[in-house]
Amino acid sequence: MKLQEIENILGIADSTLSDWDRNPRRKKLMKLLRALNKKEVLLLLESEEFTPKYSSKTRKIKLHKKWFQKDLLYSREDNSLIEIDNLIAIYLKQPNQVDTNTLLYLFGTTRVKKVLKKTEETLDPVDYNEAKEQIEYAISKKRYKKEHPLPPVEKILANPKERYIEMLQEKYSKKRIIAMAEANNLSYNAMFKIKKLLDT
Predict the structure, then answer these.
(1) Which tens digit of pLDDT belongs to each residue from 134-168?
(2) What values do phi and psi take at 55, rounded to 5?
(3) CA 54 to CA 105: how far, in whole Å?
(4) What is the pTM of this model?
């Protein structure tokens, strides 16, 4: 990056940057800042920082089913104690964007990613990739869109996902998306899901 870009993006005064440039201990930092790509820095800084509601040292919590869109713990009572890592693993096995976002808000990006990594061997590869992509999308929509091009419209409509419908809405109106879905003779479930996602 250029000095002006470093100043504007990181909010470091020009005089401070000049001092760093002359200081032998800070010279490496300046070299690093100059070597960074502006676009990559902006993408990184736009990433959502999820400060966890619960400390990484907390092992168990009281379950509040109202936190989640889907009740995947129907055999457990509300307010019963549950291990956080088990709770995360259960919801990553049947991932949906809303509940993945909830996991990130409650327990933070680092912990959720760590549990996902631990379950990689036992999770169905499709569910693993879906959970991974949902986490990436929640952290930075811009970076996700850059790294994962939009699949063909027919594929999106046949298996609608929140992030894809949201990305489609950047190109088409709700009315147009529904018309495309109807033209593809989708199942009742797919049509219902698309309409629900368009209303959220």
Answers:
(1) 999 999 888 898 889 889 998 898 889 989 998 99
(2) -60, 150
(3) 9
(4) 0.73
